[in-house]
Amino acid sequence: MRFSLPGDGFSMIRALVSLLLVVCLSPPLLAAPSTLPLDDAQRLWLADHDRLRVGAVLQAPYVQLDRRLQQLSGANVELMNWLARELGVELIWRTYDSQGELEQALRAGLIDLAPGLSQTPAGLRLWLFSDPYMRVSQLVVGEREGNAAVDLEQLDGTSPLALRHPSGVFDYLRSTYTNLELRPMASERQALQALLAEQVRYAVLDEAQLSRLSREQEFAGLAVVADIGFPQLLRVASRRDWPELAAIVDIALRNLPAKDLDLLHERWLQPKYPRLGESAGFWQNLSLLLGVLLLSAAAIITWLRRQRRGLERQLLDARHALQMREAAEEALRLTQFSIDHSTLGVLWVNWDSHVRYANRAAEQMLGYAPGSLADRPLADFQPELNMDRWLNLWRRVRNSDEGPLGFETRCLRPDGSWLPADVSLSFLRFGSSEYLVVFLSDATERRRAREALEESEARLKGIASNVPGLVFRLERPAAGAPSAFAFIGEGSEGLVGYSASELLDTGRGIRGLVHPEDRDGYWASQLAALDADRDWHWQGRILTRDGQLRWADIKASARIFEDGRAVWDGVVWDITDNKQIELELAASRAQLRELSAHLESVREEEKARIAREVHDELGQVLTVLKLETSMCELAYADLDEGLKERLESMKRLIAQLFQLVRDVATALRPPILDAGIGSAIEWQARRFEARTQIPCLVEVPEHLPAISDAKAVGLFRVLQEALTNVMRHAEAHTVEVRLSEEGGQLCLRISDDGRGFDTSARRGSSFGLVGMGERVLMLGGSLEIDSQPGEGTTLCVRVALDKEKAA
Questions:
Q1: Is residue 301 scored above 90 in pLDDT?
Q2: Which of 274-278, 414-418, 524-528, 607-611 is least confident?
Q3: Rounded CA gap, 258 and 305, in Å?
Q4: Local structure of residue 728 (DSSP, 8 states)
Q5: Ramachandran bin of 385, using left for φ above 0, alpha for ψ from -120 to 50, beta for the remaining angles
Q6: What contacts 151, CB < 8 A, 6 or more positions away?
Q7: In angstroms, what is the C-alpha Rg of the chain?
């Protein structure tokens, strides 16, 4: 019974390493690692759940039952027994004949754990899955025909493949390799029997079933000729209502040494290969292994030296830290001295509004003797501050993320006088106590300066009545009263052809000049400014006396007085020329975007043409070259050993060139796009999952409305860029891709659970995000990115469906 894989040298080295470790060191199959890093809550949970029910499907070599001894064995059984020893729990095993019976038992509440399951979108609604603990390859088995591997891309209808159906592998091969002829079989044994009976050319089965069947004499002489690149990732599933158990299982699996999992894989799942003595390069590989061990020893010595140097640096850093601490203590004493002698008043106030500390400046400002402010409530010098208002201030400052809270107020002195003061509140936690730090500054001079400044500004705004444009004043006599134009400058006649008296006497005002289509926006902006007592700004169209249309910009500054009176002084500017330039610029940008869309469409068409030419023309030439090389090998290889090696090297180079041609054609335009955007998304997700080992959940509707080729290509390129960003930057564990139809639009949503990023800080500096945004805009769609640091990223693309195609 002989089985082989491509790359026998590397496999032989790995087998030698495993054999030396097993024979020389003799460790157990699953050695007990260090104590699991569980927190107190997890240990208490395990203490309350010391008996766990494990459900398993009877399938060798994962779980098998010795009916004579009534004892379970297999790879999953050994793994779960190790987990039980580490967690200190008792396992109650329950076996089932099918996956459906296992899921029915879960719904009935009969099991808590299930090892050896693969994560699927349907399974995520029933289970919580752990990280993968074992990778099971899907292998192609056939008659031995030299040492060359089989290329699935080159197989056609004359080389049928037998495999079990229904299965995920059958669906993967059918969707990925359209050139293959697949023969469905009821089991892996029937597939191998069909291969022996020459009904098919090859059989496909996973290495676990191959390991089990390879021990039978019936299947001797078969060889593994390829790996389809669609591994099965085994995980431990647990009940969804016990997230604590899922977290504990993840910790236990991460604590399991990788070498123990490799030994478990080799013992139960790896097919049996020839003994070491039968290998022609045994001694060469053994010498290579000894060289690797010597290099490892040298690396360990170098690492130890670096560790010693690192410890020396840490000692120096500790000494430096001690010196810095002493300097910090000295700086703290200096800070305390500075606070006591500062000209800015400082109060530490407890939650009950009583002063706990006051510096000298605060005592002098408020007119109190030294030390007499301690334990006084704030109401003594701020009578309006009752306990309810104080507690509201406390909560507002304590929960604010915007920094200190500042305002202006008056403080009552013991002699009855009032002190105008600027107050700033900051929250401080010192040890186990919490305080509000109140900073006081005398605002008497600043208030006088502000009043003088306001008067100066009023005179300045009066002078502005002579500036070009329509200058106006809008006044409100009291709070809640209607407002009216009190003044309109004489520049109105030059701007709109009406004199100021006409506008004021007729009641036309500025609103009467506004274009009828813009009056609602004008009125809404004016009311908003009046209601909020803020500055007023509006842009829109106005009509002159002779009916000429012009663009105007209104800006007015508000002054609010203590008695409720308010004044808005402003100017109406003629911005017609600037607005015309702005509209022309917008039109120019629209034309540039249309040109970019056209160029992108032309580039995609050129890519598709080049991909077809590369695939068809170079593929035909390489096929002929491979056939010619094979003919030369058949005719002349036996005449010269050197020529045979040269021909073998040429065949390998041709195979590599075949793969390079496929990769180039696929990168230019994946052929799967011709099958629709849904199939292309699933294909790209599977490639991403196989390349990164990150599970990618895909949800695509069965009946997807047809869209144009440009939109399909655009969505596919956005998906490629998004998955590339996930692979390079996100450090994600799971990716979800969902395509749906929402309100006449096609929505593509890509989500990951990675580290996320700040969209405001990264979006403008990331060419990938900018490129995706421009591509979506060219399709007439929208791009939304939702991400926060540590909370993953969600990218949503929406494009309108083609009405003709939808109809």
A1: yes
A2: 274-278
A3: 26
A4: I
A5: beta
A6: 226, 655, 658
A7: 40
What amino acid occupies position 629?
A: T
The whole-angstrom separation of Cα 442 and Cα 444 is 6
For residue 384, give Cα distances in angstroms to 227, 378, 381, 390, 425. Answer: 82, 10, 9, 10, 17
CA distances from 744 to 115, 245, 741 (A): 43, 43, 7
Helices and strands of the chain, counted as H and E runs: 24, 28
3-state secondary structure 243-254: HHHHHHHHHHHH
Please name which of 689, 738, 609 lies closest in space to residue 176, comparing C-alpha atoms.
689
Determine the 3-state secondary structure of 320 from DSSP: helix
Q: How many CA atoms lie within 13 A of 593 on its CB side?
A: 16
Pairing between strand 433-442 and 470-476? unpaired
Instruction: For 377, list phi and psi in degrees, rounded to 5.
Output: -75, 155
Beta carbons of 471 and 465 less than 8 angstroms apart: yes
Q: What is the reported pTM?
A: 0.35
What would the mean pLDDT of 226-251 be, rounded to a whole number? 89
Q: Across all residues in the chain, what is the average pLDDT?
A: 78
- The answer to whether the CB of 173 falls within 8 A of the CB of 228 is yes
What's the token pair of residue 659? 């793969």
List CB contacts of 110: < 8 A, sequence separation 6 or more: 53, 55, 94
Grade residue 115 by pLDDT with cuts at 50, 70 and 90.
Answer: very high
Residue 276 has which token pair?
């070491």
- Name the amino acid, one letter, at 612: R
Distance of CA 187 to the CA centre of its chain: 40
Contact yes or no for 55/113 (Cβ under 8 A): yes
Placement of tokens 């300066």 in the chain: 449
- Predicted confidence at residue 96, as pLDDT, reads 92
Per-residue pLDDT tens over the stretch 749-775: 999 998 888 877 655 555 567 777 777
